[in-house]
Amino acid sequence: MLVTQTQMFRFALVVVLLIVGVVDPVPALEADGQESWAFVEEGDIQTSRKPIEIPAVDPLFFIDGQLCRHLRRMLQDRSGNLWFGTNNYDIMCYNGDSLRYFPAADGVGKGRVTGILEDEEGKVWFGTYSGLTMFDGQNFTTLAVDDKVNNNEIWSLTRSRDGTFRIGTMQGVSRFDGRTFTSFDVPKAAVEDPTIILAPDRVPAILEDSRGNVWFAFDGFGITKWDGESFTFLTTESGLPDNNVCDLMEDSRGDIWIGTMFGGLCRYDGETFTNFTEEGLIDGVEVGGLYEDSRGRVWFAVENHGVYCCDGDHFKQYYKDHDLPTNGILCIMEDNTGRMWFGGWGGLFRLIVDKFVSVTREGPWE
Q1: What is the per-residue pLDDT for 61?
Q2: How high is the mean pLDDT of the chain?
Q3: Is 25 a domain residue?
Q4: Which of the two residues, 12 and 124, has the higher pLDDT score?
Q5: Spatial contact of 26 and 56, defined as CB atoms under 8 Å apart
Q6: Does residue 314 form part of some domain?
Q7: How many domains does one find in the chain?
Q8: Which of 150, 193, 226, 229 has the most neighbouring CB atoms within 10 Å?
């Protein structure tokens, strides 16, 4: 059978949309007689009426026995609960005894989860495809981003020192003070012939650093930095390896780590960019999942090249030789006992004695 150029283009477009999470790979199947878990309080299990959705086999990302097809974000809250944000299963939570799924029927925003954080009161917040979801310890509530400029498709979520949320959407940045959403106008750098993946105003990453500066990554327009009074720009013209920034992280030394789509990884000390990809210290160009552990080591993922751990000036790669069964890790986290968790295409994984293990309902959790 001959494949036309149009068919090839459509296939490539679907793959890209799957990767960024705009569409789900295949429709879900419902299993009769099974129930999805809802909130559990003091050991009493309450279940919703909606049957749990069992995914059909996805030839691109499915791993037998896994919890979900795409896992994008993770957080351990102050009570020790492990929260997981997915593309297909909304929100999952492991409370130390069992795993529970929280679907839209429980008040969770529909679609992919692209941000999770906990506030000072212990409330857990989730950036979703359809708004900002809050869990107050008993119930979920989803709020629409109604600032009349941005839409509900959240791509990044941070919380400032004053308690204000900064929310990156497909159409720019919104601020939320706990009551009201307000559009926050962030200018983009002047970039000639930008490579835009989804939308020119999409903000895939936001970071507030230890000095109070706020960094906004744009789709194809590099980084806009705000010091509270004025904006400055970082692009390839100033040393950034690529204008498509995926991820931002400040380490314990105050340096900013920048993962990009097409230019690899760099570190910025406020004056100079150190390009680790250009120096040949890592393979691949699409970098995300930046995370610093309790020992000061920086972890990150590179699509099709596994996971790296940077300990000082030494980079260690974990991939096929370490039994990593996926080529796309999206998020990395260390829990309060020092266990390392990795989420991405194919689900949830643990690194145990230098080998990756796929996590199922049965674990390993401990």
Answers
A1: 58
A2: 86
A3: yes
A4: 124
A5: yes
A6: no
A7: 1
A8: 150
Tokens of 277: 């990809």
Structure tokens at 181: 């959403």
**Is the residue at 211 inside a domain?**
yes
Following DSSP, what letter does each residue of 100-168 receive, concatenated?
A: EEE-GGGTPPSS-EEEEEE-TTS-EEEEETTEEEEE-SS-EEEE---SSSS-S-EEEEEE-TTS-EEEE
The answer to the question of residue 294 being in a domain is no
Return the amino acid letter for 326. Answer: T
What domain range is 112 assigned to? 5-62+72-264
* 96, 337 Cβ separation under 8 angstroms: no
What CA–CA distance (Å, rounded) separates 113 from 75?
12
Burial 80-119 (b: 16+ CB within 10 A, else e): ebbbbbbbbbbbbbbeeeebbbbbbebbbbebbbbbbbbe
**CATH number, domain at 109?**
2.130.10.10
Closest CA relative to residue 242, chosen from 260, 223, 216, 217 = 260
The C-alpha R_g of the chain, in whole angstroms, comes to 20
Q: How far apart are CA 220 and CA 266, in angstroms?
A: 17
